[in-house]
Design a protein that fits this description.
The protein is of the alpha/beta class and 322 residues long. It is built from ten helices and 15 strands. The longest helix is centred in the middle third of the chain and has 20 residues.
Length: 322
């Protein structure tokens, strides 16, 4: 069995290849060639253990994530995770991967896939709202999909925004990284925006004219009571893409607008339908395009399988007898 840590994952695959893998996973989702039970959550006091299993014909696997809110006081991450990958025909354990790194990598790739298929190649500026771990991965992966010239970063905590700007400046050699003074400034200056926060209230200004011709990617809101998008965003939206149908009930950025009539259900399609050509959109102009992701275990399974294959080919990781 192969053990793959964070550095191993980043050495094994490129971000461009990971976007390709997510694209394939989105099409597998459309074809229904998988089995993905509902996410299971076991709670004990304030702490939680999440189990996310998934099966395809070739592989099976489970991501296990622990959430310990009190870890912040101990200066430790709130979230830890591992991904167990098994052979789909025999059940033999193949690999154990760093789950936190896997989540960061594949979620960045999901945002990248949306940008690849829902934006014009003429876009030049990227805005990131939320200066956490995912803000970094979203920005770096997005810059593999379009030739952005400038990346703007905004966070309500200026020190966090400063630190992310510094980190991105080291990672992105062809882009200028700038800290935006406000979300209004960031929205006005960005062709493509990515929100990566855990906010329960909209993090973008409620001004419809500022969204004209923009593409917005929502990564953060994964619960019905979480929202990153304001009402004004939906004013110029003809088609809203989601990664899974679960987004309609899981994310407040889809559930609330549907309930309030800001958008109709027939305007919401899965990204797979756009990738496969079943639904066509015309990026650019005055239409606002939106992609909302809540993630799914199928992404973890297919990306971890891809990473495992490349790691074996390159001799990366530590083999242990299980």
């Amino acid at each position: 069995m192969l053990i793959l840590n964070q550095k191993d994952l980043l050495r094994a695959v490129s971000r461009e290849d990971t976007v390709d893998c997510v694209e394939k996973a989105v099409l597998v989702y459309e074809d229904k060639n998988f089995h993905m039970p509902d996410r299971m959550c076991v709670e004990y006091g304030k702490n939680s253990l999440l189990l996310m299993p998934c099966f395809t014909k070739k592989s099976m696997g489970t991501k296990l994530v622990s959430l310990f809110p009190e870890n912040e006081r101990k200066n430790m991450p709130v979230l830890f995770g591992v991904m167990v990958l098994n052979d789909g025909e025999t059940g033999k354990p193949l690999a154990v991967l760093n789950g936190s790194a896997l989540t960061a990598l594949r979620t960045g790739a999901v945002g990248g896939a949306g940008i690849r298929h829902m934006t014009s190649k003429k876009v030049k500026t990227l805005g990131i709202v939320g200066a956490g771990v995912q803000g970094f991965h979203q920005a770096v992966t997005a810059c593999t999909q379009r030739q952005f010239e400038t990346v703007y970063v905004y966070d309500k905590f200026s020190e966090k925004a400063y630190q992310l700007c510094k980190k991105l400046s080291e990672a992105l050699k062809d882009q200028t990284v700038i800290e935006a003074k406000s979300s209004e400034e960031l929205l006005a200056d960005s062709d493509v925006l990515i929100t990566a926060t855990t906010s329960s209230e909209p993090v973008l200004p409620d001004e419809a004219k500022l969204f004209l011709g923009k593409h917005v990617v929502g990564i953060g809101s994964y619960k019905p009571d979480m929202r990153e998008f304001p009402k004004a965003l939906y004013t110029h939206v003809r088609t809203m893409a989601v990664d899974t149908e679960y987004a309609l009930v899981e994310s407040g950025d889809v559930k609330v607008p549907l309930e309030k009539g800001w958008i109709r259900k027939d305007q919401i399609v899965t990204l797979g339908k756009i990738i496969s050509g079943k639904v066509s959109i015309t990026p650019g102009g005055e239409e606002t395009t939106v992609f909302k992701s809540v993630g799914m275990a199928l992404f973890d399974l297919m990306v971890s399988g891809f990473i495992y294959k490349r790691a074996v080919e390159k001799g990366i990781g530590r083999e242990v007898v299980f």
